[in-house]
Amino acid sequence: MELRHFRYFMAVAEELHFGRAAERLHIEQSPLSRAIKELESDLGVQLFERDRHGTRLTWAGQVFLKDIQRVNLALEQARTNVRSAASGYRGILRIALSDGVAPQRMGALLALCRKEEPEVDIRLFEVSLAQQLKGLRQDLYDAGFARSSKAGEGIIANALWDDPLMIVIPARHPLLSRKLIPLAEALTFPLILYRPEAYEGFHGQLDRLLQSTAIQPNVATRVTTFNSMLAFVSGGYGLGFSSEPLITAFNYPEVVPRALADESARMTTYFLRPAEQASPELERFMARAYDITSNA
C-alpha cells in the first residue's frame, strides 16, 4: 500500500466517477482502476460498487474514507509543521474559534503572544462548535474559544471573558428613543437569530435568556453568519443580538447597538482544551488569555 493508493482512492470516493477522478489526478483511467484493485486486494475488501447506475462506496469504503481523511489531515499538518520549523518557529499552537470571538480580544492576545514568544507559530481555525470539539479530541487543535461550556468528556472548559449582550437595531427604529432597552420590550419585535448549528454556544446562552422571560419570541428568520444578521437587521427585517465587543468592532451605519436594561444579560466566552497535560507553550498561551481578561 502506497500513498498514491490513498490519493487515488480519495479522488474516486469524492468524485464517485472513475473518469472524472482520473482527469482530476491527471492520469489515464486504466492505471487508476488498477491502483484501486491493488488497494482492494491488499485490504481484502471491496471499496466500490460499480454498475450501470454509477459508482458507489461500499460500507467498508465509507469507513476507510473517514480514516484516510484523518491520515490526509495528519500528513498536511506534518508538511505545515516542517515548513514552520524551516522558517524559524520553535513551536506551533493550533487554536479553534467558534461562535464569533471578539476580534479586539483575540487581537490583543495575539499581539501579546507575538511580543513575548514570537518563536511560537499560532494558527487560527474558524469552525463550528461541533467541529472544534471533534478536532480537540482528534488532536487537530490544541485549544479553542467558544460560547459553550458543554464540552463533554475529555475536554476542559473554563469561563474566560464575560461581555454585555446588546440589541442590534435598524437605524430609525422606534426603540432608539431609549438608551437602555428592556428585553421584554425588544421581544415585541421580530428577531433575527442564529441557526443553532452555526453559532451553537451563542444560541444556547441566548436561548436560556429568552426562555427566562416566558415570552415567545417572534423569529423573522435565522442566519448562519454575523454579517447575515447585520444585513437583515439593516434591511429592517427585525432586531438582532451580539456581544458588545463584537458589534462595536464593526462600523455599520445602518444598524445601531443598544445595551439591555438587565445588566445580567451577558455572553460568556470559554477556553476549551483537552484534559491531558498542556504543553508549556499552551500553558503560557492560557496565562496570557487570562491576563487579557483581567486587563480588559
Automatic annotation (TrEMBL):
It comes from Paraburkholderia ginsengisoli. Residues 1-58 form the HTH lysR-type domain. It holds the Pfam family HTH_1. Gene3D superfamilies: Periplasmic binding protein-like II, Winged helix-like DNA-binding domain superfamily/Winged helix DNA-binding domain. One of its GO terms (molecular function) is DNA-binding transcription factor activity. GO terms for cellular component: protein-DNA complex. This is LysR family transcriptional regulator. InterPro entries: LysR_HTH_N, LysR_subst-bd, WH-like_DNA-bd_sf, WH_DNA-bd_sf. Belongs to the LysR transcriptional regulatory family. Keywords: DNA-binding, Transcription, Transcription regulation.
